[in-house]
Amino acid sequence: MITATPNRYALLADIGGTNTRVALSEHGRLLPESIRRYANAGQPALEPILAAYMQTEGVSDLAGACVAAAGPVRDGTAHMTNLSWVIESAAIARVTGAETVAVLNDLQAQGHALGHLAPDAVATVLPGQPARPGSAQLVIGVGTGFNAAPVHEAPGGRIVTASECGHITLPTVTDEDIRLMRFVEAAHGFAAVEDVLSGRGLERVFAFAAAEAGQPHSRTAAEVMAEITARSPLGLETARIFVRHLGAVVGDLALIHLPFGGIHLCGGVARAFTPLLAEFGLAAAMQAKGRFSDFLAAFPLRVIEDDYAALVGCAAHLHALAPRI
């Protein structure tokens, strides 16, 4: 337990669809020994989790608080995409006593973590070309959901803009793509990128592959990864379809944002697929853009393997807002 004097530490929270990670930071540095994980199931809101954490750690009247939420943020309020919580900066301030409060989209937090992670926390998938200082970067989250955020270095500091690109229309090029789109539409009414490139999307892709093979059945995301690891025919077909669509969407986002400083994949599904990306042709799928194929080879692509990167980003962002924190 960390017993703190008032206004010494900042509180950080990374809220996913399943778990919430909470920690403390001091002068922009995440304190690893303070990290705790809480299950979201059965919790009516975030505030009881933060209150329980503060009581356990023996802290109160914090200097700052930063929350990273998996959902859209507007005017200091986040609406969770895969959880019925509303996160409000005023409520966070009341619980923590913090004078400086920030509510970020979770991908924004990942963007603020870039440059603050240990070298061994990032794995290179595609080397690309060396980045010039100040080049734009892009973080893409593939986990419970899908989203992305561009990262820009500006005279006043780093700017990480939010998006909800996981809910854009799933790209369709081949006949197989169209069949997959129709399959997803039958379940969700609309075929979005997140309906394929996420944990539940992986389940949907497996069900599609099984139906295409005349063996209709389903698996959980964990069971699908086990099928892939065991190299079953349906597991390998699922991996092929998943990686091809991931490459196509990453290539589209790269053309939109021109991240010559690098593309950074994050999230549990992205980390699980890291050893499979080369085998199943991520580079070819990403660069299949006609006369811009060679252009896309310039972008380095890496995977963030630090599960607490969003907390690191929250600490860095708070420190940028108020250097004393």
TrEMBL record:
It holds the Pfam family Glucokinase. It is an enzyme of class 2 (transferase). Keywords: Kinase, Transferase. GO terms for molecular function: ATP binding; D-glucose binding; glucokinase activity. One of its GO terms (cellular component) is cytosol. Its EC number is 2.7.1.2. The keyword Kinase applies. Belongs to the bacterial glucokinase family. This is Glucokinase. It comes from Rhodobacter capsulatus (strain ATCC BAA-309 / NBRC 16581 / SB1003). The gene is glk.
